[in-house]
Amino acid sequence: MITFAIRRLILSIPTLLFISLVIFLLLQLAPGDPMAQVPLTVPPEVKEKMRIALGLGEPLYVQYWKWMVQFFWVEPMVFIDWLTRDSTLLGWLPDTSLYDGRLRMLSWQTRGPVMDLVVQSMPQTIWVVGMAYVVGVLIALPIGIYSAYRHYSVFDQTGTFITMIGFSIPPFFTGPLLIVIFAVQLGWLPSNYNTVHEVTNWDTFVYQLKQMVLPVMVLALQTTAQISRYMRSAMLDNLGQDYVRTARAKGLREGVVVMVHVLRNSMIPVVTVIALGIPAIFGGAIITENVFGVNGIGYQLLIALFANDIPTVMTLTFIFAILIVLFNLIADVLYGVLDPRIRYD
Amino acid sequence: MTDQPLVSGPDPEIDEQAYGALQDKGPIAPPRSQWYDVWNQFKHHKGAMFGGFFLIFITLFVLIGPYIWTLDAQKLDIRAKDMRPIWTLIWDSEAKAAWAHPFGTDQLGRDLLANLIKGGRASMAVGWAAMILALLIGTFVGVVAGYFRRADFWLMRFTDLVLSLPILPLLLVAVTLFRQPLRANFGPETGMFILIVGVVGITSWMQTARIVRGDILALKEREFILAARSIGTKNSKIIRRHLLPNVISPITVSATLGLATAIITESALSFLGVGFPSDFPTWGKLLADAVQRMEQFPERVLLPGIAISLTVLSVNYLGDGLRDALDPRIRGR
């Protein structure tokens, strides 16, 4: 198992390199000009100097190499420094001070390091998306279990219908719809996510909860629809097996049979699907973040895209890619750990 | 030897019966084709039937609609701006509504029904074209990988790589960055159409390829392929004549899923403001434009939103029914 995990980890390095190359080439081959916003009165030779100052004068492979050095070498050094200096978790360690003042990846919008932008917006995304995923999974599992146990019952039929609807309604429709119903008509919840809101006492905590409800609901609807379908079919596969009959025949209580024997076996594929769904929901959060104005990485990506801010776009897209590769790896390893019948060799 | 007792049986009536049973009266029902069986199973799936009918309805709606509702979707009529749909008259007789614009008009007086029809045309065209492109790529990669062992490893590694690309961010990047030159070369609408169909098609063929490869791998070991090969059939002929007809069913199912994804992706791109030009309506664009004033005019969000959702829902149900109908293990249950 360990060898398999290590081999997968090593294999994911060329994958990530390939993805970064694809993103880089896509951005380089794109005809968009970062100098397009510069006024026409600026003479061309000055423009050329600005271009070189932005690092655009170099040949492609040099630019790619420099980006890689910045992403995989300079930024981790800054991060480790921060960890050992300012963070509460590892702050007790001696300051490593690895960072030697080399050029970091700079955003063309803010002229500040791209990673600062990521560090600022990541918590917003993780809070909203992570909460939505947890809520979605927690709702989906009981629905899936019960509708498989009562196959073809009214609950099952309704559940299937509702999950189908949740599957089909896009988040850019449910978002405005929920805003109209809960924020405008009923006035229960705020329509916009206030990113600078700080939790200091009970009231602000309640407000934080309230403003998270709508985006979490939109994202959780899709998660619930997907996971409960998988849960239901996995349970159905297992409920017809011989070992279930044996368990019942030896007089086990129904609750034990379903919740222990069948559930444990059905969870194997479902856990994999849950792990695989995490990067997808990060991608889907781009739309939800824009509907509700959550200042997360998806929102930042869109802003950077419209501003032709190539370093930020490249970094954010690559972070999405890392998430996908990472969770694919986790799903594969989990599958092997949970199911002893699976042998990787 | 076995018919000995029949000849010398004591009771002639039993003889008659036995002979009757042995006689071949010919088939009771005409032989049923595979597609008859599929249809038989399919029509028991209520959701799938509803989905199929709705898909046909919405396709006719956007195809024939412009000839029946001849109002120009682009026509500005500032005097008739901000009209409400006709049904608001039921509870509010003061509302500004008229049969001239049954679904109301927007802030520039453009007719919403005409816009829905035209927007539906764009959305459906993008959906179908992107789905067909994805199917063609996916089937090609799947067949080549499944049939030719030498290509298998590299093609499947490539598929895995593409699967781990972050699709939505890349779509956004590609559409934003390649918008200008395509618009310049093909005109704003055709250029955008080519771009969106291209990027959606190129980023959604992987599932089809995997499914087709799996099926081809199993099929090519079967006897009929061996037989075809033994009489000297060429590879291309085996693929076209013997393999492709056998993978039609998984391809159909992934086609429905592909159509749903393509429609949603196009609408999402339009919603995020990177889709078609601003004066060219699609369902996603109508929805996005109406979000600003949805408190006063909720129907402008609801109608395109419902159109997208119902189309996708019906396509999903259709896919569900097709999967059941095309699976011979489930058929007849």
TrEMBL record, chain A:
<dbReference type="InterPro" id="IPR035906">
    <property type="entry name" value="MetI-like_sf"/>
</dbReference>
<keyword id="KW-0813">Transport</keyword>
<dbReference type="Pfam" id="PF00528">
    <property type="entry name" value="BPD_transp_1"/>
</dbReference>
<dbReference type="InterPro" id="IPR000515">
    <property type="entry name" value="MetI-like"/>
</dbReference>
<keyword id="KW-1133">Transmembrane helix</keyword>
<feature type="transmembrane region" description="Helical">
    <location>
        <begin position="312"/>
        <end position="338"/>
    </location>
</feature>
<dbReference type="InterPro" id="IPR045621">
    <property type="entry name" value="BPD_transp_1_N"/>
</dbReference>
<comment type="similarity">
    <text>Belongs to the binding-protein-dependent transport system permease family.</text>
</comment>
<feature type="transmembrane region" description="Helical">
    <location>
        <begin position="268"/>
        <end position="292"/>
    </location>
</feature>
<feature type="transmembrane region" description="Helical">
    <location>
        <begin position="205"/>
        <end position="225"/>
    </location>
</feature>
<keyword id="KW-0812">Transmembrane</keyword>
<feature type="transmembrane region" description="Helical">
    <location>
        <begin position="125"/>
        <end position="149"/>
    </location>
</feature>
<keyword id="KW-0472">Membrane</keyword>
<dbReference type="GO" id="GO:0005886">
    <property type="term" value="C:plasma membrane"/>
</dbReference>
<dbReference type="Pfam" id="PF19300">
    <property type="entry name" value="BPD_transp_1_N"/>
</dbReference>
<dbReference type="GO" id="GO:0055085">
    <property type="term" value="P:transmembrane transport"/>
</dbReference>
<protein>
    <submittedName>
        <fullName>ABC transporter substrate-binding protein</fullName>
    </submittedName>
</protein>
<keyword id="KW-1003">Cell membrane</keyword>
<feature type="transmembrane region" description="Helical">
    <location>
        <begin position="161"/>
        <end position="185"/>
    </location>
</feature>
From TrEMBL, chain B:
<dbReference type="GO" id="GO:0055085">
    <property type="term" value="P:transmembrane transport"/>
</dbReference>
<feature type="transmembrane region" description="Helical">
    <location>
        <begin position="160"/>
        <end position="178"/>
    </location>
</feature>
<dbReference type="InterPro" id="IPR000515">
    <property type="entry name" value="MetI-like"/>
</dbReference>
<keyword id="KW-1133">Transmembrane helix</keyword>
<keyword id="KW-0472">Membrane</keyword>
<feature type="transmembrane region" description="Helical">
    <location>
        <begin position="301"/>
        <end position="319"/>
    </location>
</feature>
<dbReference type="GO" id="GO:0005886">
    <property type="term" value="C:plasma membrane"/>
</dbReference>
<feature type="transmembrane region" description="Helical">
    <location>
        <begin position="125"/>
        <end position="148"/>
    </location>
</feature>
<dbReference type="Pfam" id="PF12911">
    <property type="entry name" value="OppC_N"/>
</dbReference>
<dbReference type="InterPro" id="IPR050366">
    <property type="entry name" value="BP-dependent_transpt_permease"/>
</dbReference>
<keyword id="KW-0812">Transmembrane</keyword>
<feature type="transmembrane region" description="Helical">
    <location>
        <begin position="243"/>
        <end position="264"/>
    </location>
</feature>
<dbReference type="Pfam" id="PF00528">
    <property type="entry name" value="BPD_transp_1"/>
</dbReference>
<dbReference type="InterPro" id="IPR025966">
    <property type="entry name" value="OppC_N"/>
</dbReference>
<dbReference type="InterPro" id="IPR035906">
    <property type="entry name" value="MetI-like_sf"/>
</dbReference>
<feature type="transmembrane region" description="Helical">
    <location>
        <begin position="48"/>
        <end position="69"/>
    </location>
</feature>
<protein>
    <submittedName>
        <fullName>Peptide ABC transporter</fullName>
    </submittedName>
</protein>
<keyword id="KW-0813">Transport</keyword>
<keyword id="KW-1003">Cell membrane</keyword>
<feature type="transmembrane region" description="Helical">
    <location>
        <begin position="190"/>
        <end position="212"/>
    </location>
</feature>
<comment type="similarity">
    <text>Belongs to the binding-protein-dependent transport system permease family.</text>
</comment>
